[in-house]
Amino acid sequence: MPLEYYPPVTNFLNVMVKHAFFVKVWTTHNTKKRITYHNEKLKTINRSPFPEKSDNVLERIFKYFYFNISCFIGLIKYKPEAILYYESYSVYPVFLYMKFFGKATKLYIHYHEYEDRESYKNGMKLVKYYHELEKKFLYKRASWISQTNKERLHMFASDHPKLPSEVLKIMPNYPPKIWSSQVNGKSKASKDIIRTVYVGSLSLKDTFIREYCDWVLNQNGKVCFHVYAYNLDDDTIAYLSSLNTDYIVFYTKGVEYNKMPALLADYDIGLILYKAHTKNYKHNAPNKLFEYLACKLLVLYPDVMSGMALYQSDNVIRLNFEQIPSFNEIKKYFSNKTDLKSSYNAKTALQPLIDHLY
User: Architecture of domain 3-176+347-357 in CATH?
Assistant: First the structure.
């Protein structure tokens, strides 16, 4: 996947290059016109063609083949002391290198998402095959295997009970430390209108977007709602585009990651809307939770997301999005909200990995 689609990866790279590491990256070309990631201290980012859904079968096969071979050859030339790969998609060149050349190489594996057995069984055949290589060979060689939170790690450990506990780690996806200082400290909810925002992927099937929009419309101007999203299906785009109201604004170009602090400072509430149809989402504390908190927003999340319970506080509120409380009840949450400096930042989250690499 292109780096630009996964801010936790670029956050990781921005932290890594501040240490005594020489880093090379293998990824794919950014095809969604996102601003290309650049760090002057990171000299080598190798990019392959990105397999598009619109590609025919031969084009997709070629692009997968190209990435795997170019990455494998690059690893042979580079002779890394350590390799970190993200997700099962990236397995094959690492498998080949570790099998034939990497006896002295430390292997690190990180998962942005938790995938259970059914997900692999019903997903892409190629990824299912890659996961078999992980289980049979790479997990045994790994010095570090991480998930983003405690619940996901517990489920992963249950799926792979033979893995030694000292290898299994938690590495959260937190925003840059500088974000908290970039927010201008505007007083939240000081007016009669509550300003709410959602940033991220959306679908009518998997989120409470329709339920929340209906509630906003029923508030008759007391609540405004802005949506910034890149990744939407056609039905969701059609629905949001059809809402004929000034109270709900849909920004089809989304927002670039490094511009989020300045943007979110204008809002009062950050929304998390997942319906949690899968274990991955049910036991998830999504990146946007920590991004909202870093930008001093009150956060509302659905009661079906058990992974959020750990973070519930006066600033993180659990709601039934099928029966959203009244405007006055929502506004009462601000009386208990605290203005604590967020401790959820990438530098702190990544320090155990940095120490392990040293």
Answer: 3-Layer(aba) Sandwich (3.40)
